[in-house]
Amino acid sequence: MTLNQPIYCITSDVDWASDYCIGDFLQLTRGFGVTPTLFATHESRVLNAFANTNPDDVGVHPNFRPNSSHGSDYLSIIDHVFRLYPNAATFRSHGYFDSSDILEEMANRGVRYDSNLCLYLQPNIVPLRLAVPNITRLPVFWEDDSHWMHTGGDWNLRNYLDAFTSPGLKIIDVHPISVCLNIPSEEHYQKVRGHAKTVSAGNLEALRHKGAGARSFLTELIEFVKSRGQRFYTLREIYKAFPVESFLAADTRTERRQSVHSDEEHAKYWKMTEAERQEFLKDSYRQRDARDKYATSRDYHARELEIQAIARNLGDKGGILDLGCGNGYTLISLASQLRGWKLVGVDFSENLIEGARHLAAQERDRLQSSPEFICADAIRYIGSVRDSSVKYVISERFVQNLPTVEWQKGIAREIHRILEPGGRFLMCEGSLDGFRALNDLRGKVGLSIIPETSADNVTAIRIDSDEFERHVTSEIGFKLIGKFGFSQYFIISRVLHPLMVAPMGPRFDSPFNELARLIQENMGFDPGYGSNYLWVLEKPRA
Fold first, then answer.
1. pLDDT band at 262 (very low <50, low <70, confident <90, very high)
2. Do 6-45+112-247 and 254-538 come out as alike in CATH topology?
3. Spatial separation of the C-alpha atoms in residues 164 and 221, rounded to whole Å
4. Which residues lie across from 136 on neighbouring strands?
5. Concatenated DSSP letters of 268-316
6. DSSP alpha helices (H): ranges in 174-244?
């Protein structure tokens, strides 16, 4: 699930309601297969029974207002509610009362998330990181008494469907008395509030409002959500599914998936000798966190699409040689799908090969093949491989990072030499044509042009499709079996995404990119837009 869609959750502030009220509310939600999260104010037989079967779905609802029955100061109040429910996983204060002292004490009690803020009908609500470490706030979207105060008692759900179907968290906050008695207004609430602790089957009909109110609205809302094939999550499920770090401005998860270079180094690279360029590249990879599976790919959604495309173009069982394998993530992914294949990865970076061996050991239990990783210069290594001895050769951004076009053509010739007749070279590299087409589209809609090389991407020499394809087919002897790309993914992630979040910058871990990948996975892998192409080249049989 993603927050590009509404994510629904029902919570309830118990507010000293009678067991009959609480039970009535739970019976209503249970009838729809919904588990709410309850915030408890007092000892309750019904609440205790619910907590026994749903221990993660009971929080505390302390009252920090003056003359509180929970205590005379914030520490005694917190002590009181935790004596009642010592395993409470979350809290919401009565009246949303808040302070840094309260949060710090809650964190000390093991609370890791709260729902102590109401943003009435605000779209695009996301988890919030609080100043107090370790506590995430999951704000309320709709509350029953806030609704009658804001709307004057308009309980027609159709008037609010645009809000309830907008993206973001849709945490509902209701009170058992409001639901049980179908309270429609502040006036009605004031008439019945004195009965909160004594509502029972005997006086229910006399107290319950007969028209539209909180109960009818909640029931209609649940029915609407269910009719759309969507479900209600518990507060804990939302906390687990949406770590707050993924909504922060700093894209910290990608920091060591990119080597940092200056503009001066970028300019200097193109004046280096071929050997110096190779050493520069090798030094760049020393900066990466090789134990991060995406160490060589900040755009990890695009990387997963590449791996899918490669897997789809493997035929009969045979050995795979991955040239410039980096930290081995592609081979490890394939090893989880292919039983008993010989998989060999070669890379000249000691750092990345060490990472590859670590990742393989970490994933050992789910692998169906055992990849081998060799630290060696891939060009020298391939020179030692005998003719017609390898079924598949794969590369991902290995060819484009070679120091010259001549080196690129030379490695293609060597790969043709070592492939068996009928063997395939699965070349996943940067396409100059796709890169320029995407830039052309970006320019037309007012986005900046991405430079072909820069301090962020120093070494790329992308493939000129016409020239390279002519060379490998006419001069080397490959047959071009297919050419694949991820146009839909790149149009969404590199054009729509930055347009939608401007003036903020796009992020690789954005839900936009996640949805773009999902869409691409369910469409053809068509080339055209975006640098990432997969060329499938086959060595003809004699």
1. confident
2. no
3. 9
4. 113, 129
5. HHTTS-HHHHHHHHHHHHTTS-TTSTTTT-S-HHHHHHHHHHHHHT--S
6. 176-180, 186-192, 204-207, 214-227, 235-241
SS3 439: helix
Phi, psi of 88 (to 5 degrees): -55, 135
Least confident of 1-10, 145-154, 204-213, 342-351: 1-10
Report d(CA 150, CA 126) in Å as an integer: 22
Strands of the sheet containing 90-91, edge to edge, are 128-129, 136-137, 113-114, 90-91, 58-60, 37-40, 6-13, 168-174, 142-143
Q: Give counts: helices (H), strands (E), the chain.
A: 23, 16
Architecture of domain 254-538: 3-Layer(aba) Sandwich (3.40)
- Helix or strand holding residue 170 (H, E): strand 168-174
**Average confidence (pLDDT) over 278-282:** 85
CA distance 386 to 388: 7
Mean pLDDT value of segment 338-352:
96
Residue 100, Cβ neighbours under 10 Å: how many? Answer: 10
- 495 and 442 Cβ atoms separated by less than 8 Å: yes
Cβ atoms of residues 289 and 515 within 8 Å: no
First to last CA, the chain: 51
Q: What is the pTM of this model?
A: 0.58
Distance, in Å, from the CA atom of 216 to the CA atom of 184, rounded to the nearest integer, reads 10
Residues 12, 174 contacting (CB under 8 angstroms): yes
Cα separation, 237 vs 498, whole angstroms: 30
139-194 pLDDT tens trace: 999 999 999 999 989 999 999 999 999 999 999 999 999 999 999 999 999 999 99
Phi first, then psi: what are they for 345, rounded to 5°?
-115, 140
**Residue that the structure tokens 């319950």 belong to:** 208
Residue 505 has pLDDT above 80, yes or no: no
Indicate whether 256 pLDDT > 70.
Answer: no
Report, as an integer, the average pLDDT of 29-42. 98
Tokens 């520069």 locate to: 280
Query: Contacts from 40-43 at CB under 8 Å and sequence distance 24+?
Result: 40/14, 40/81, 40/84, 40/85, 40/88, 41/13, 41/14, 41/15, 41/16, 41/70, 41/81, 41/94, 42/14, 42/16, 42/84, 43/84
Length of the chain in residues, anyone? 542
What is the rounded distance in angstroms from the CA atom of residue 459 to the CA atom of residue 324? 14
Write out pLDDT tens, residues 295-321.
888 899 999 999 999 999 999 999 999
Q: Sign of torsion, CA 353 357 362 364?
A: positive
Distance CA 124, CA 122 (A): 7
CATH no. of 6-45+112-247 = 3.20.20.370
Sequence letter at residue 428: C
Question: Domain segments of the chain: what residues?
Answer: 6-45+112-247, 254-538
